[in-house]
């Protein structure tokens, strides 16, 4: 392992007084990040850096042609003091899928794991205490770095991982939120990059998200780009609905395969629910007893209602404005596994030694 910059010096500055219980979901500077470069057809050694900036050529493919992929996962400090990382192999595999989709060099799963464990250990003092309900957000980033002006894949890449302590994604935490259907913007096309975790998908969502917030909603709700008939995603999260003891989530070639949703489907099945992954028409929203948006950031954000302003409809999911019993049970079970309060019978957690 090579050390860059000031890593070989002890950082003497005192830990700021962090209000762990009131953390926002945002960036906070931590001590170190880690980097691995791909050059001459091979991945190099892991480097540790305390520098927050990247030295990039102005003609790097990530800047011009969108050769950029990222992931998001979390580390949790348990009541027993142990630090657990949730499903990192799944994130590694999804990153490889994205690399295949936009022709980037694939980082081996073991190298991904090496980088994640290293950066978490180096920044252990930033992992929030158990009782705060906060966590350490881990952001792996892969970018094309070689200089070129022709539209073709880069031959050099940089893999970077940084971390930051975070609170809940939505200010209210585990509480219901209102959504609004936005038809005038599409997040992704059925045969586009929706199934990959690339920055362009999020750039495409910014205008719709801004409009939803201006209208007083927590987030935008997308229908499929081709027919505007089927449910796609809830902002940057997967959708699921509960009815007749069944967990239903949309199946589409434009939806990012959420690791949280995959986990919830397994938990729902083991709780005795039937699980269906299929196209879900908009009008079916009227039949759900519970519904939620799910992802790494929020785990589950229960849905209060989904308004279709263009057609003058309001699909009220939560009649009393509170999370439903199945959403609550799923949320508590998944969080329990993440924090070590529930046994990890699935092998989802990696304990940081």
From TrEMBL:
It holds the Pfam family Aminotran_4. It catalyses: L-isoleucine + 2-oxoglutarate = (S)-3-methyl-2-oxopentanoate + L-glutamate; L-valine + 2-oxoglutarate = 3-methyl-2-oxobutanoate + L-glutamate; L-leucine + 2-oxoglutarate = 4-methyl-2-oxopentanoate + L-glutamate. One of its GO terms (biological process) is L-valine biosynthetic process. It comes from the Bacteria. One of its GO terms (molecular function) is branched-chain-amino-acid transaminase activity. Pathway: Amino-acid biosynthesis; L-isoleucine biosynthesis; L-isoleucine from 2-oxobutanoate: step 4/4; Amino-acid biosynthesis; L-leucine biosynthesis; L-leucine from 3-methyl-2-oxobutanoate: step 4/4; Amino-acid biosynthesis; L-valine biosynthesis; L-valine from pyruvate: step 4/4. InterPro entries: Aminotrans_IV, Aminotransferase-like, B_amino_transII, BCAT-like_C, BCAT-like_N, BCAT_family. Its EC number is 2.6.1.42. Keywords: Amino-acid biosynthesis, Aminotransferase, Branched-chain amino acid biosynthesis, Pyridoxal phosphate, Transferase. The modification N6-(pyridoxal phosphate)lysine is found at residue 197. SUPFAM superfamilies: D-aminoacid aminotransferase-like PLP-dependent enzymes (SSF56752). Its cofactor is pyridoxal 5'-phosphate. It is an enzyme of class 2 (transferase). CDD domains: BCAT_beta_family. Acts on leucine, isoleucine and valine. Belongs to the class-IV pyridoxal-phosphate-dependent aminotransferase family. This is Branched-chain-amino-acid aminotransferase. It comes from Bacteroides faecalis.
